Please model this.
Amino acid sequence: MTDRTYITTSEIERARALWEKGVLLAERTEGYHTLKLYQLHDLYVEVIWHTHFNVALKVTTFTDTEHLDPYLQDISLESLFA
Model:
């Protein structure tokens, strides 16, 4: 699924595609928000959840790996060098 295809489908179809075919890559917490990063074919999807109200606040799609930096900071490479 391309970024253009994902954007042009309905919200229900996007949610279904993410649920059925998306792969959860990472998760991080910022205050009352949980940010979940998924890969869906050739694009990344970031879903921001409000942890108290259990509701999705924002869904962002991107293909540029520059946006992965906040997630990469949480990955420990120490076990690779042990």
User: Anything to note?
Assistant: Residues 11-21 form the longest helix (11 residues). The mean pLDDT is 88. The first strand starts at residue 23 and ends at 30.
